[in-house]
Amino acid sequence: MADVVGVGRSGSVTRERAWRWLPGAVLAVLLAAAVGVFITVRQAVNDQNGRILRERTGEIGLLLESAVGNIPATMSGLGVASRLGETPAQAFLREARIQPGLSPTQTVALVHSSGGKVTVQAVAGLPTLSTGDVLTGVRAAAVERALAGRTASTPVLGHGQTRVLGFAVGPPMTSPGTAIYLQAPVDPAAAAQSPVTHARPFDELSVALYATPQADPSQLVLATTATPLHGTVARQTIAVGGRSWLLAASARGPLVGTFANAVPWVILAVGVLIALSSGAVLLVYQRRRDYALALVDVRTRELATSMTELEETQEKLVFQERLAAIGQMAAAVGHELRNPLAVLTNTLYLIRAGFSDDEEQRMGRHVDRAEREVGAAVVIVESLLEFARAREPLDEPVDLGDLVDEALSVAPPPEAVEVVCDGLDTAPVVRADHQQLRQVLLNLITNAYQAMGGDGVLTIRALADADGGVELAVSDTGTGMDAETAAHVFDAFFTRKAKGIGLGLAVTKRIVEAHGAVIAVESEVGAGTTFAITLPHALVAEGVPT
User: Is residue 2 part of a domain?
Assistant: First the structure.
């Protein structure tokens, strides 16, 4: 049965520990689920933003290729005019003055290549070139490419604020050996400094255009924001004048829309709220459950205590009923035996008085034995009557020192027994029943004499306790008692003696408890016995120091 209970208790403890972790575990699982859904949805939104960004970047690339493609168309009119005029230079200049596509900040030149030398023949627009100038480097290479029949462009030239970009067209738009070279200023900061409004195309994007396939800051042609771009950047290569340009774009905000971009955060907030709410509900439920279990434990302990008290009360009631029945029987027996014993005592006295000397010597010892047995029977009858007629103690002052002297005079010690009194001279006067306390002392003292067998030390000690009461102890150096005997020594009719009926200590305890006092026993086999009577502070007479 104990093993089964132990296993059940172990399983209950295991389940209780698991229950303790449940709110935290549910909170952790729900938070993990919320974070997982957030990451998944956030990734989907980012993927959608990236796809839209790439689409918009492709659209911008097409627009830029179209815009750059109009430059050769503008230059082709100048080339055709140079072929049809009286002189190429005059016709070129006349056409340049009326050409609507040219900007005042651009420089357009009619150049001629001969013997690997590219020379400027005429200049229109911003005079960054002069007639007779010789083009070299990348500008000359662009012109040579244009003379080969292909539109050509240069990388960004110059440093600091003076940065230009060149384009060149040649035959069949121009006469053989002749090309139109356009040089336009490059100012990326101008576009970056202009405000972004909804009227601008692709206002939701930040764009950077480089005249090289790589993001080279020195080749930056156009930028709508500070470079380099941050965040997710889409890149596309476009063909401009036989060269590969890099178009880079990033989103200024969520391209999928503000609500769609906020959905992952809404999901995360809702998930965290659900996790916290679930954890809080479980925690509250757990605390209520713990409170209910604690209340059940308290009620169970109270019920167990009540059952124990009920059992003890029932046992006491049964015992009291038994004692009452025994008391009634003892009173009846004692009353019926007292008169015959008195008659026997008187008869033995008369018999002894009528003996002659010879009869005294011959029959005296038999009469002595009869008198002793009658005396023992009288003691038993008196014990029965004392046990049967319980009465309330009187309230009168009792000096403990005088009480002990009186008890010792009634029951003097045997010759080999030494009596030691301690603290009786300073013991307080108590309020008690003098006769009953004397009977208690006589019972304890005579029991001590019997336990010592007529040889030992009897100690009677009075000691004030911490609560203002007084303790009266009777100790002997006799044979002592084992634990079982000491546990039942105050039970009625319990005795280990050859003679006696076991009522002396039962009557003693009843008298002590009737006074509101307590009696206890301490004993060890071979080391003697001590009976201690604790008289509470309420029994100490007022005005008498303790």
Answer: no
